[in-house]
Design goal:
The structure is a homodimer. Chain A is an alpha/beta fold and about 325 residues long. The first copy, chain A, is built from 12 helices and 12 strands.
């Protein structure tokens, strides 16, 4: 297969992208294409000592930044790395497109260039959500759709379950609905209706969950609207950063505490590693006719490498095709009722 | 003043309530009345060696549990500790009512027994939100109103600012609106409209905030709808519990790490203390014609004591009266525009 990387997206582009590609290339057989300003990327490949032919470069003169209105940018900047990269997936020149750039541009590109899967109302950004000392969950939606209908939440759950099963390898994944209480009948008009739809579906729905339980590995697929999902992911990240910062600061108080910290070095390093989103690979944009992975803007070499590795089952297990099948099954069921 | 305590609410009632009352009584001059099953409370007072007359008991034979539908329970159980306690505030027999019981019953009791402040559409549950290594913020709403209008968010901000200033003593408190991005124009129809209203108000509005920043002490008053606020408070609590659990587990790995943990004992204890909601006192229900404080269901002696202490400026600074004034000023402003 052929993996297309956005060479220009993210805070550390193109260097961390190129280094991640080189690290991944050592572990896989697949071709990697980096799209972006050819001279910059070639320089970075050279500076990082790459001499192989597994990684190639496709030139794109324009860059879409986080500050631009995504829809307009995708429509105008035909020669941007994002537009070119996604078009390569559409045209069969690549199997998956990966970017650490603008989430909005990835979503708009997915919609306009690849198009929605038939029967999907709203594609979703599904984040791999770290659960400390456990395998991660999938959280969907995390910001693609701030305002949702209940039908959208059912779609997110269906797509998230497929990704969890096929890419992260968990069979018959459990699905929980984020709510303000665990009892049936709790919540807003949206969550009440979504509860009904999820209960009636073939998914492994376990009912309402509260955010208090997320770090208890309460379910595999966490379903919520994009506004709440965005708040959850960012708060988790902020709390993780705060904890590491506070431990460091407090453990440097005096000679005694510094010695304690030295003795606990391994444990602190492990904890830090678990708080690191980079370990888990990027966030898939599900519901469009092609495989797209969004990485965190601050992705480093490790994050890029991990995302490239996770993109392989995403493509090989044909998650996009399986979503198409699942959605058409749901629709058949609806129309036969 | 006279502080009315629900002797029957919470996981550890009446014992932790009684012990908290005894601890508070040592530090204040005010009368404390415990409402609930007289024999149980008298037994607990006796068992805890209390012999004074600063704490008295008012009998209430019924108890409203968390499992009951709050509105129905408040209407039917006239002899419950919650209904009797709130009625005492209405009738001038008490200045504030404090409970660790059902939040729904407190809200329903506030609405039906005390009534809304004129001009307030929706009373709010405003939680004191812990920010590690900083003074706490106020988060409003935290679950009283899962579905909100923009006007409600402005009311929450107005009431939360007053509570922050008068009770927690922070002058001209900053107000931030939880959103899925910091730029103006971000968010849902609700947050966009709330942004406009907050910008046009006299509040010290700093704009949109992301949940990633909450532990950076980004603002004094965090404004959001009750669904999102509930998710934030519960996730913060869940993350805090997870961190303490993980540190403990990891630090007990082997003899070396155990020694490290011993050397870091003071620092770990301090961090644990900061994660403890109990330090900050209860959550006020703002917007009703009387002072109500809701404590966490698992409140221990310390939490009860702290909430009693915080109830004093809540009453003495006449936060309820100041909310009435502020809301009528807002209304005058509206009608003169």
């Amino acid at each position: 297969m052929r993996i297309i990387l956005d060479g220009m997206g993210g805070d550390n582009a193109p260097d961390s992208i190129v280094r991640g590609a080189i690290a991944a290339a050592k572990e896989i057989e697949d071709d990697i294409v980096v799209v972006g300003k050819e001279d910059l990327i070639a320089d970075s490949l050279k500076a990082n000592g790459y001499k192989g032919d597994q990684i190639t470069v496709v030139n794109a003169d324009e860059v879409i930044t986080n500050e631009e209105a995504p829809v307009k940018a995708v429509r105008r900047k035909k020669d941007s790395s994002v537009v070119k990269g996604i078009a390569m997936v559409r045209d069969g020149q690549g199997d998956v497109f990966i970017s650490a750039g603008s989430t909005g541009a990835m979503l708009a590109g997915g919609l306009f260039i690849l198009g929605r899967i038939e029967g999907i109302d709203r594609p979703t950004l599904a984040t791999v959500y770290p659960v400390i000392s456990h395998e991660p969950s999938i959280l969907t939606d995390t910001g693609a759709n701030a305002e949702c209908k209940a039908k959208n939440l059912l779609e997110f759950a269906t797509m998230g379950s497929l990704y969890m099963e096929k890419v992260l390898g968990r069979e018959n994944p459990t699905v929980g609905l984020v709510n303000n209480g665990t009892e049936e009948g709790k919540g807003t008009a949206l969550t009440k209706e979504a509860y009904e739809l999820l209960s009636a579906s073939d998914l492994n729905f376990i009912g309402n969950i509260e955010t208090r339980e997320l770090q208890d590995a309460v379910c595999d697929v966490i379903v919520t609207d994009g506004f709440t999902g965005n708040a959850i992911v960012k708060l988790t990240e902020g709390m993780g950063l705060m904890v590491l910062r506070e431990l460091k600061r407090r453990f440097l108080t005096n000679a005694k505490s510094k010695l304690g910290a030295v003795l606990l070095k391994d444990q602190l390093r492990d904890l830090k590693k678990e708080f690191n989103y980079a370990e888990y690979g990027g966030a898939p944009i599900l519901g469009v006719k092609g495989a797209l992975l969004k990485m965190h803007g601050s992705s480093d070499e490790l994050a890029v490498k991990q995302t490239i590795l996770k993109s392989i089952p995403y493509v090989k297990e044909d998650v996009v095709g399986k979503i198409e099948e699942a959605i058409s099954r749901n629709e058949d069921k609806d129309s036969s009722e």
